[in-house]
Amino acid sequence: MPRRNYAWEKLSDEQLLKQRLSSLRVKVEGTWLEDCVGALNEELRARGIRLRPHTWISSEWFSPADVPGIAIPFYLTHPRLMKLEKKMMLEVEGGTWSECMAILRHEAGHAVQHGYQLQRRRRWQQLFGPSSKHYPLYYRPNPASRNYVQHLRRWYAQSHPDEDFAETFAVWLRPRSNWRTRYEGWPALKKLEYVDELMGEIAGIRPPVTTRERKDPLSTLGETLGEHYRKKQAFYAFNPPKTYDRDLVRLFSNDPRHRRAQPASRFIRRHRAQIRQLVARWTGENQLTLDAVLDDMISRCRELELRAPGSERKLVLDFTVLLTAKTMHALFGPSRRKWIAL
Fold first, then answer.
1. Which of 332, 325, 341 is nearest to 143 (CA)?
2. Closest C-alpha among 294, 241, 304 to residue 268
3. How many CA atoms lie within 13 A of 235 on its CB side?
4. Which member of 26, 86, 226, 327 lies 3.0 to 4.6 Å from 77 by CB, making a disulfide possible if both were Cys?
5. CA distance 109 to 172
6. Higher model confidence: residue 239 or residue 84?
7. 67 and 137 share one domain
8. Contact 340, 137 (CB under 8 A)
9. Over the range 98-119, which residues count as b (16 or more CB within 10 Å of their CB) and which as e?
10. Taking Cα atoms as reference points, which of 178, 196, 108, 191 lies closest to residue 145?
11. pTM for the whole thing?
12. Looking at the 3D structure of the chain, how many domains does it have?
């Protein structure tokens, strides 16, 4: 289907950030998202689940309580908006087919829970916990835990009983996930087996909750894109600890013999995108947060007048290991805030 043209496509970033979200007027229909939603519905149909989550465009991914539907973020509807998202947040959550489908399966878990009111079942509560549990702003996961499946990054199943179910459902729903073998010996397998049994029980049954309510649709959001991104960036921001001088001096050099080598600050700037993406992939940390740490490291390298002698390839590897170790210590050490429950 031909892509619709919008007046804001040709605006500069500065001009686009002044536009109100409601003025974008984008929809799921006629975009690649329509194919993703169609693929999700086909997966649900193949499993005998009658519920088809309705979708709409909003500011972020979510499935509202008691609504069997899915809100999809506006930036995924158009390449121009994805480009701006990438610039403002350094990544585009759900920006590829595989990532989008992974999140849709997760949100479909919420929609199925809401549509069939699964959280009211005693066995559901025994395995996942009470859905009424306070939803945290932050959480501290245990990466080694085998009590939870691993689907979305940041060990998201550990943040709340509802997320535990949605993640388990997503693993169960994904075609060819081979979950029985993947989670053999894990306590989380009991949850997967329960979901398998439960979905067989509700197969072919019309969900009791069928509301088509759309919470916070894009047409009602009056804030500008600039205001939206300022809030989003502030949500991930934190003041990085000043604890890596010793490590930077060990990795780089302030020896006069290396004064002709490239400045360490320049080395980090040249490789920051590659290293940031790698560390984000393996630690689950947000790229925006890692970028703040890299900015601080660049500043410290300048102040310490550090140079980057030796093999560039080895330095990239060593610096990636250093940033990964510092990130994991920050995430799980006693002085770090808990993880944001997205």
1. 332
2. 294
3. 15
4. 26
5. 10
6. 84
7. yes
8. yes
9. ebbbbbbbbbbbbbbbbbbebb
10. 191
11. 0.81
12. 2
Please state, in angstroms and rounded to a whole number, the distance separating the CA atoms of residues 204 and 199. Answer: 10
**CA–CA gap between residue 111 and residue 165 (Å, rounded):** 11
Nearest to 27 by CA among 6, 53, 51: 6
Domain membership of residue 188 (yes or no) is yes
Q: What is the largest CA-CA distance in the chain?
A: 76
Average pLDDT, the chain: 91
Residues 6+ apart with CB under 8 A from 77: 24, 26, 27, 28, 31, 33, 57
H-assigned helices in the chain: 13-16, 32-46, 79-89, 97-116, 122-128, 161-173, 179-182, 188-202, 225-236, 245-251, 264-283, 287-304, 312-332
**Token pair listed for 214:** 């759309």
Give the three-class secondary structure for 58: strand
pLDDT score recorded for residue 201: 97
Asked whether the predicted pLDDT for residue 104 surpasses 60, the reply is yes
The answer to whether residue 32 is domain-embedded is yes
- Residue where the block lists tokens 């290991």: 321
Let me know if residue 2 belongs to a domain: no
**Which residue range is the domain that position 83 belongs to?**
8-220
Nearest CA to 226 among 56, 55, 21, 41? 21
- Nearest by Cα to 16 from 80, 60, 99, 97: 80
Are 185 and 136 in contact by the 8 Å Cβ rule? The answer is no
For 14-64, the pLDDT digits (tens) are: 999 999 999 999 999 999 999 999 999 999 999 999 999 999 999 999 999
Nearest CA-CA partner of 44 in 179, 194, 208, 170: 170
Q: Is 107 left (phi over 0), alpha (psi -120 to 50) or beta?
A: alpha
Q: Scan for tokens 């947040």, then name that residue.
A: 89
- Residue 342 contacts residue 156 (beta carbons within 8 Å): yes
pLDDT value at position 238? 60
CA 164 to centroid of chain Cα atoms: 15
Same domain, 158 and 205: yes
